[in-house]
Amino acid sequence: MGDSSQMLANIFEQPSVAERCLAMDLPMPPLPDVDRVIFSACGTSRHAGMVGRSWWQTLLQIPAHLEDAADGYPVQVPPKSLIYLLSQSGQTRDVIDVAQRFPTAPKWGITNGSKTRLHELASYTLQTHAGEEKAVAATKTFLGQLLLLLRVALAWHDRANRNVPQTIVLQSKIAQIPQQIQTTLNQTEVACQQVAQKLVAADRLILLGSGINTAIALEGALKLKETVYLHAEGLSSGDFMHGPIAIIESGFPVITIAIPGSATYDKTITEAKRVKSYGAYLIGITTESAVYDADLFDAVLPITDIDELLSPLLTVIPLQLVAYYMAKNRGLAIDAPRNLTKFIG
Ligand code: G6P
């Protein structure tokens, strides 16, 4: 790597973080008697909660909601709700406020710290064991949050005898995740360096995702804002068609995440063609064996083939690397961006 950046080191630690998160004991408490789950978190952790929401809805078929703790949500928690609080540090004031506002509701937490306020306030707290993350922009702790959310969802599925067919299929695939992360790092890094170079003068960027990967479009935009100070906006590809697409003009850079096998793939590709037809410089994040028109993407950031429901574990990687290399090209303080402070749990 030839680079002393903490952020780059953290990105490349992700295969071993994944190994640890899959190997660690997962002492499941008795399942609370709930008919909905409310995720509440801030920043990157909120994006992990957005993926968690998709997993609770699809893998467990339990109604799940996402709330912005920084904006004072939830304001109300109906009976039979579980509040799921995610926080890398376990100390973020807005998240702790949510825990304190609803003292009697069952609360579960995921944090990278070992003795945090979240541990004190939640009834069940798991630690991501990602190791200390010194770079301000979260990368490996985000991956750890996703993996623990996934493991809890799969354990909940078994404990509650839910028998959701696609969840049973996924159970057999999670052991491959660390290797898939390593393969993706290997196969996508050079393409990320090239895209970062291409975007060297960019002052704006749109990131599009669909379904479970809309969360990753938002997370990619946050990484770019935090490390590159770039005006980047993440949103769902579908929603982008409903007004925002008016901003596209010749050369406007857009990154779209399109994962074959998803219910939204064909629609996302159709939307990508439309964006391209208005002159966008279109970068695709897709799997290595995806099939699409040769002239659709101006550049491709490949990930290894993976089930769509697991794909956020991989689609975030090229976005982390593009943010890192763009910040490096611009000579920015990658590990300690301006205006930001970070609690380490
Ligand atoms: C800060 C950081 C974000 C981070 C958020 C939540 O504002 O700038 O990068 O995601 O807090 O932090 P937490 O420790 O609760 O995950």
Notable traits:
345 residues; alpha/beta; 5-stranded parallel β-sheet; globular; binds 6-O-phosphono-alpha-D-glucopyranose
Describe the structure in your own words.
The structure is a single chain. The chain has 345 residues and is α/β, with parallel strands linked by helices. It is built from 12 helices and 10 strands. The longest helix is centred in the middle third of the chain and has 22 residues, at 177-198. The protein starts with 5 loop residues before the first helix and ends in a 16-residue tail after the last helix. The mean pLDDT is 96. Bound molecules: 6-O-phosphono-alpha-D-glucopyranose (G6P). Residues 42-45, 87-89, 92, 95, 138, 340, 342-343 line the site of 6-O-phosphono-alpha-D-glucopyranose.
Order of helices and strands: HHEHEEHEHEHHHEHEHEHEEH
Major sheet strand order: 2-1-3-4-5
Oligomer: single chain
The main sheet comes to:
5 strands, parallel
List all distinct small molecules, including ions and cofactors, that are bound in this structure.
Answer: 6-O-phosphono-alpha-D-glucopyranose
Helix-residue proportion: 40-55%
Mean pLDDT: 96
Radius of gyration: 19 Å
Shape: globular
Terminal Cα span: 28 Å
As residue ranges, the low-confidence spans are none
Number of helices: 12
Helices and strands in order:
Blueprint: H1 6-12, H2 14-23, E1 36-41, H3 43-58, E2 64-68, E3 81-86, H4 93-101, E4 107-111, H5 117-121, E5 124-127, H6 140-159, H7 165-171, H8 177-198, E6 204-209, H9 214-228, E7 231-236, H10 237-240, E8 253-257, H11 265-277, E9 281-287, E10 299-303, H12 312-329
Parallel strand pairs: 1-2, 1-3, 3-4, 4-5, 6-7, 6-8, 8-9, 9-10
The structure holds 6-O-phosphono-alpha-D-glucopyranose.
6-O-phosphono-alpha-D-glucopyranose binds next to α3.
